[in-house]
Amino acid sequence: MLDYVDLESELTEEERMVRDTAREFVEEQVKPDVGQHWIDGTFPKDLIPEMGELGFYAPNLEGYGLPNLSETAYGLLMQELEAGDSGLRSMASVQGALVMYPIHAFGSDAQKDEWLPKLGAGEAVGCFGLTEPEHGSNPSAMETHAERDGDGYVLNGAKTWITNSPISDVAVVWAKDRSSDGTPVRGFLVETDRDGVTTNKIDEKLSLRASITGEIGLNDVHVPEDNVLPDVEGMKGPLSCLTQARYGIAWGAVGAAMDCFETARDYATDREQFGKPIGGFQLQQEKLAEMATQITNAQLLAHRLATLKERGDLRPEQVSMAKRNNVRMAREQSRVAREMLGGNGITADYSPMRHVTNLETVYTYEGTHDIHSLIIGHDLTGIPAFE
Ligand SMILES: Cc1cc2nc3c(=O)[nH]c(=O)nc-3n(C[C@H](O)[C@H](O)[C@H](O)COP(=O)(O)OP(=O)(O)OC[C@H]3O[C@@H](n4cnc5c(N)ncnc54)[C@H](O)[C@@H]3O)c2cc1C
């Protein structure tokens, strides 16, 4: 796959091994069937434990049998998974960055002991409930709330657009604690088989079809005090998870674009019109040159982020810049690849059209492109455009 400025030479043995393992997994286990899953609107659930066995969930966390790999290795893993499909990378991102990370960072020892090994092995599936029907870009206005009830809490509210909720064993639900001063947002671990929990599937998506998306309905759901994440309060909780996931997306989007590039390059050197491969025409070469350049820029940004994250200096605004840039790049370049494949480009026989539609979701979730512009704008001017 494209590596125009030899970033390979910067990788450790371990990072190469992680990348190669993920690449082989995607080539052998994902690419042959993912187009059909996308058409059918299904997720290849049999891969969930296998991805666990390979250590694909939260490999950058420490303890609990997790591999504790470098941030570059984690990024490369996200890159390879999204070269297969954004739905696959979304599964790993949610499980690792949005469910295991908050339990690891903010959970009690009992919560860590109970959930991290199971989630890490893919024996349990988790989801992250922040977005609500009326509150997407402004989650701090959430209506879902918790009230003290004896030795625990009662939760009421509704979450929507929740990746994996219909197949989850546990949901990390963010809700306002009405029993504490200032109604701070707190994280609750809600087992999905509790009375009052519903997880209806959202059908007829035209994007990220090889991923299961649903709602979380909470109707007088009782959870014990032990299910509250004890070590975080306020929007810092969900936002710090999003920073982890957005870091993975900044890498993942590059993987989708790399897959589109390779498909377009192969096609252009093979497909003949006017008596020669279309890749021999200047217009097509310009497209490949631009695609390769944009991908290379995005790779450099992702690698730099890894260095900053590794030494603990990465700021959320820098992650916003990379998510915003790299997803926009992938969204634009996947279209160019699609175009280069002519009529064949609109079929599921080739990956670019699938990536084109998937990337509409990736552009929107985890902070829309607009919201990341405003986060960066705030950082640059010191003036918030929204509260
Ligand atoms: C397939 C899929 C999976 C998802 N998975 C999850 C998940 O697992 N967990 C979860 O919690 N959420 C998830 N989401 C939700 C996602 O994060 C939200 O869709 C996203 O945050 C945008 O919210 P919204 O859809 O309500 O759009 P809105 O916030 O209503 O935005 C609509 C438009 O207005 C723009 N806009 C909003 N505010 C401003 C502003 N201040 N200035 C300028 N423009 C603005 C936005 O950029 C956007 O273009 C998922 C979404 C999808 C589509």
Task: Tell me about this structure.
This protein has 387 residues and is α+β, with helices and mostly antiparallel strands. It has 3 domains: 119 residues, Butyryl-Coa Dehydrogenase, subunit A, domain 1, CATH 1.10.540.10; 101 residues, Beta Barrel (Butyryl-CoA Dehydrogenase, subunit A, domain 2); 146 residues, Butyryl-CoA Dehydrogenase, subunit A, domain 3 (Up-down Bundle). 51% of the residues lie in helices and 14% in strands. The protein has 10 helices and 9 strands. The strands form 2 sheets. Strands 1, 2, 3, 4, 5, 6 and 7 form a 7-stranded mixed β-sheet that branches. It has a two-stranded antiparallel sheet with strand order 8-9. Helix 6 packs parallel to helix 8. The longest helix is centred in the middle third of the chain and has 35 residues. The radius of gyration is 21 Å and the shape is globular. Flavin-adenine dinucleotide binds next to strand 1, strand 3, helix 9 and helix 10. Flavin-adenine dinucleotide (FAD) binds next to strand 1, strand 3, helix 9 and helix 10.
